[in-house]
Amino acid sequence: xxxxxxxxxxxxxxxxxxxxxxxxxxxxxxxxxxxxxxxxxxxxxxxxxxxxxxxxxxxxxxxxxxxxxxxxxxxxxxxxxxxxxxxxxxxxxxxxxxxxxxxxxxxxxxxxxxxxxxxxxxxxxxxxxxxxxxxxxxxxxxxxxxxxxxxxxxxxxxxxxxxxxxxxxxxxxxxxxxxxxxxxxxxxxxxxxxxxxxxxxxxxxxxxxxxxxxxxxxxxxxxxxxxxxxxxxxxxxxxxxxxxxxxxxxxxxxxxxxxxxxxxxxxxxxxxxxxxxxxxxxxxxxxxxxxxxxxxxxxxxxxxxxxxxxxxxxxxxxxxxxxxxxxxxxxxxxxxxxxxxxx
Length: 343
Description:
With 343 residues, the protein is an alpha/beta fold. The protein is built from 14 helices and seven strands.
């Protein structure tokens, strides 16, 4: 099962501070340039282990000064759970930071790696170290929303709920009302135990019907998310099953959301209308689409089952019998007090 939290955290690392717009240079050493290029060749052949080794070697050949190598070491070190490699690369970035803002970002990235490690190993030590790094990031840049939110999650995992809630409250004050992460932080304030759960990514989108849907607006309802595409034969074969589920649970606390990876909007709209796909529909545009990346989707059809609290309960690649699971989750959703259900 794909570890969703790792994907989310990596996506947060792209631009932690809006003002950071530096052009990143590759290795300067000739041997390092060749090795770095070889790494991308391995990635193209889906040989991630070999690619990671190439990026490590290129960084070493470049005297430990290859920023792009280090970022790749973090990315694929986390993906492969090679924690020593990811930590070492993040530590190098801390050492080589040139100014206060770069240093804050580097401490943040190291903190994120350590948080990932804590999530993977279920141990407090990485979380404690993550809190230290995130505190250093915030000492350098007090108004650093991503670091504040991450530190709240770390504190929640350390069962320091009051300190965690204070961080989430700080984050909420910095973000606009329609920000999905703000909505999620508000829930963490009232239910800090959710910050320790395997939550579905906090997202917001507008469906084909013009309806704005956010994950946290659906609190109190079971959510079934189906990633698919018109060009995907197994997806077309699974369509009658998805239609049957949408019909079977109609009127119950269940939301079905199909997210298409089609690039051709008109073809997608035509297919949806022709096949009477009357449940919620959204086009993400491909595997590099925002929602697809959030969920770490690399193959379709791919479904995610999310309970009424927003916790990921199940995921399947390919068509699968999920009615039993849905029935149980819907039953629990019906039994929730009205105050816990989405308005």
